[in-house]
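dumping this here so i dont lose it
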C-alpha cells in the first residue's frame, strides 16, 4: 500500500513538471510586442508577419516590394501589445535613396494598452519620392525605414515604368463606298 502511494506521488510530480514546461512554452511564445505590416500595391495586399524579421537575412536585406511608377502604395503598420503593461514608443517612417533621406512620412508617439493594438498607416505616392518622372523602361529603388523603439524595419520598394502597349495591328478596314 505504501509503495502504491509513492508511485502515485511520482506520477503527479511528473505531470506537474510537464504542465509547467508546457505553460512556459505557451506564455513565452505569446507574450511580447509584435509588429505586422500590411502593404497594398497592384490591387493586392501583402502581409509581413512578425516572424519574418527573425530570419538572419531579413535585417540586412529587408523586405522587397515591386510596383509601377505613379501608382500609390498603402501601408498599415500594426503594433500589438501582448503584455500586462502599457507600451509607449516613438514610430518614425522615412524614405531613403542611396543612403540619403528623401522625406519623413511619420514621426509620432504611440501608446498601446495591454492586450490591444494600434495601427499607423500612410500612403506612398510618386510625389513623396522627390523625383518628378521615371523614363519608360526605367527602374528605381527606395527604402522605407520604420523605426520603433530602437528596432528598424526596412522595406525596399522597386519602381518600374513599363512601355505603353502598342495597339494590335488588324486587318485594314475596307473603304466605304460613297455615292
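and the seq i came up w/
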Amino acid at each position: 500500500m505504501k509503495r502504491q502511494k509513492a508511485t502515485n506521488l511520482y506520477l503527479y510530480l511528473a505531470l506537474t513538471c510537464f504542465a509547467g514546461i508546457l505553460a512556459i512554452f505557451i506564455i513565452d511564445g505569446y507574450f511580447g510586442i509584435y509588429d505586422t505590416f500590411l502593404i497594398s500595391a497592384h490591387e493586392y495586399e501583402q502581409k509581413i508577419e512578425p516572424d519574418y524579421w527573425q530570419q538572419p537575412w531579413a535585417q540586412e536585406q529587408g523586405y522587397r516590394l515591386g510596383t509601377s511608377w505613379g501608382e500609390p502604395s498603402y501601408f498599415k503598420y500594426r503594433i500589438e501589445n501582448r503584455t500586462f503593461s502599457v507600451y509607449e514608443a516613438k514610430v518614425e517612417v522615412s524614405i531613403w535613396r542611396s543612403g540619403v533621406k528623401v522625406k519623413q512620412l511619420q514621426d509620432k508617439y504611440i501608446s498601446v494598452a495591454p492586450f490591444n493594438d494600434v495601427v499607423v498607416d500612410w500612403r506612398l505616392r510618386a510625389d513623396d519620392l522627390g523625383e518628378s518622372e521615371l523614363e519608360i523602361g526605367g527602374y528605381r529603388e527606395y527604402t522605407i525605414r520604420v523605426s520603433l523603439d530602437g528596432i528598424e524595419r526596412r522595406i525596399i520598394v522597386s519602381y518600374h515604368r513599363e512601355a505603353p502597349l502598342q495597339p494590335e495591328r488588324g486587318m485594314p478596314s475596307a473603304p466605304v463606298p460613297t455615292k
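The two ends are 121 Å apart (CA to CA).
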